[in-house]
């Protein structure tokens, strides 16, 4: 009996080992490179949306799929081109160690410093949340043949910035709006959004709004432009297109600090490019739906993991958007939002998350 049991074990142990090894080898590895830090309000929802979509598509985390992440932290800490390039090299080194089945890159900085160096490499790449047009990246490095037929190892979803729709929404709320101040920074995202805005305005010359642009290199510049706007009757709203700004005496103002200062000091309504900006305190926006954006990207990634060639999967714009309104900010500015607009909104906030002490009617 013992000899029979030993014989069974001798046969079964290699079989079990082989089955375990096969299971490990069949588990798909997804390596997600964030431009951001782990808690960033743009990156984290995209990541969560992607993971949720993989699960919906039948990829069970820990069984069919495993996730690896690298946070470049280029919005808060590694902000110079040299530092971003260094973080890109570190991310690529980590990718080569993990040897993933697919690489996902979130935002423009990850695209520039990770995606471009890996163009035409052995790694399939899916990007998410890029503001800069893919054609501009293609001028730097040959990354695609066309949007409909990328042709190489890269595909993805561009972050659709609904600026014209946001401006129209603001004009519905406040019909006398004629001129908007755009305050932008010098980041790839800031430049990308301005390029999209200029393109939209050229394609819609009849659009009844004037745009004035200021470039803020520091937080002090930003504050100066907002205070100047407060004093001008010809400026009716602002569009803060910034993600982080250096302070004159060292340190860096990140987005929550910039938003908090803005809603406490600006006397003009703001357009928020993403719904969390409206939740935090800006007045309104036709905004990016980041969880849906991550999910749309994951669908492309899943197709690649199932055997499709990324070069045959079209590059798309983000499909989903959300109309967002902040009633507390409207109250603070003595503005009334028409009922028909409230009824059409996807997200309506009654507090300013980054100015919690303000209450409607205060």
Report on this structure:
This protein is an alpha/beta fold and 362 residues long. It is built from 13 helices and 14 strands. It has a 6-stranded parallel β-sheet with strand order 2-1-3-4-5-12, with helices on both faces. Strands 7-6-8 form a 3-stranded parallel β-sheet, with helices on both faces. Strands 11-13-14 form a 3-stranded mixed β-sheet. α7 links the parallel β6 and β7. About 6% of the residues have low confidence.
Chain-averaged pLDDT:
89
Structural class: alpha/beta
| Main sheet summary | 6 strands, parallel
Query: Quaternary arrangement of the chains shown?
Result: single chain
Distance between the termini: 85 Å
Question: What is the element string, with H for helices and E for strands?
Answer: HEHEHEHEHEHEHEHEEEHHEHEEHHE
Low-confidence stretches: 4-24
Q: Biggest sheet, strands in spatial order? A: 2-1-3-4-5-12
Number of helices: 13
**Rounded Rg:** 24 Å
Strand content: 15-25%
How many extended strands? 14
Q: Give the overall shape, derived from the CA principal axes.
A: globular
Q: What is the helix content?
A: 40-55%
């Amino acid at each position: 009996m013992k000899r029979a049991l030993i014989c069974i074990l001798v046969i079964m142990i290699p079989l079990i080992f082989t089955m375990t090894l096969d299971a490990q080898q069949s588990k798909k590895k997804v390596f997600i490179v964030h431009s951001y830090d782990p808690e960033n309000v743009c990156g984290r929802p995209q990541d969560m949306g992607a993971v949720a979509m993989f699960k919906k598509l039948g990829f069970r985390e820990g069984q069919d799929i495993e996730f690896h992440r690298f946070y470049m932290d280029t919005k808060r800490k590694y902000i110079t081109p040299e530092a971003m390039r260094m973080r890109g090299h570190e991310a690529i080194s980590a990718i080569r160690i993990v040897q993933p089945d697919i690489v996902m890159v979130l935002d423009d900085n990850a695209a520039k410093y990770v995606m471009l160096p890996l163009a035409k490499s052995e790694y399939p790449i899916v990007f998410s949340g890029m503001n800069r047009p893919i054609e501009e990246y293609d001028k730097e490095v040959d990354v695609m043949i066309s949007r409909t037929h990328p042709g190489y190892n890269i595909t993805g979803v561009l972050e659709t910035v609904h600026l014209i729709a946001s401006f129209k929404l603001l004009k519905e709320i406040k019909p006398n709006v004629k001129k908007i101040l755009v305050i932008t920074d010098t980041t790839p995202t800031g430049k990308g959004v301005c390029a999209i805005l200029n393109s939209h305005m050229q394609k819609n010359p009849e659009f009844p709004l004037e745009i004035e642009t200021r470039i803020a290199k520091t937080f002090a510049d930003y504050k100066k432009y907002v205070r100047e706007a407060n004093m001008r009757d010809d400026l009716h709203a602002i569009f803060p297109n910034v993600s982080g700004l250096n302070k004159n005496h060292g340190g860096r103002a990140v987005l929550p600090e910039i938003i908090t200062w803005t809603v406490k000091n600006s006397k003009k309504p703001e357009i928020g490019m993403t719904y969390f900006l409206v939740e935090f305190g800006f007045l309104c926006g036709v905004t990016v739906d980041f969880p849906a954006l991550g999910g749309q990207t994951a669908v492309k990634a899943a197709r690649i993991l199932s055997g499709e060639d990324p070069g045959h999967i079209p590059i798309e714009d983000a499909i989903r958007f959300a109309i967002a309104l902040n009633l507390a900010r409207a109250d603070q500015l003595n503005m009334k939002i028409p009922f028909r607009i409230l009824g059409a909104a996807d997200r309506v906030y009654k507090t300013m998350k980054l100015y919690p002490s303000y209450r409607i009617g205060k």
